[in-house]
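Still learning. Any example?
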Amino acid sequence: MNNYSTKTIPRATAKRLPLYLRNLTILHSKGIVRIKSKEFSKITQVPPATIRRDFSYLGELGRSGYGYEVGFLIKVFSELLDSYEENRIAIVGFGNLGKALANNNFRRNQNLTIDCVFDTDPAIVGQTVGGFYVYSMADFEKVVREKNIKTAISTVPSEYAQEAIDIVVHSGITAILNFAPDRVEVPDSVSMRYIDLTTELLTLLFFDRNYKKPSLVATS
């Protein structure tokens, strides 16, 4: 259990914490022991003032003119995000996207593990695909309770998403990442995040067109 209260952290700040932790971990792996907010801003693309404000919600994490100790920040954010604890994850929908997520298996964070995958396609249910045994959605509740899984990733298309999410919620899972952009109904006790790949791509292209930094490549 960490010693930091999440009640005083704004939601916008909370969304940036995993980004900070990921980049701090990369810096640590490169032997960087200290960094200033201006330098960290260039890496995270978050304004220095926002970084300092986000960090201030967690207390005195650095010193003016000195910066922040990378190792200490990793410890703080890891405790806050409970990333020291193993988080076992179920994937619902084992099509192309589900396979890609399972094969990646969060290599940079050994505490995030794809533990089981589910589908309704009779062609793959009961088979081992890409190193994963594919369970039937009919067995979802039984399997995730046996494995004590509290997190699920759904790659089910929008037209079937509500039915799939209902099964996930009924099993007792309280954290769901949904790749279907259309909203679904879940109880207040369930934390749901949506990832719309089309929206993300359009946002990327917009920033590329309008906020692109000058090229560093010399031209003749």
About this structure: The chain has two domains: 11-80, 87-200. The two ends are 58 Å apart (CA to CA). The longest helix spans residues 11-29.
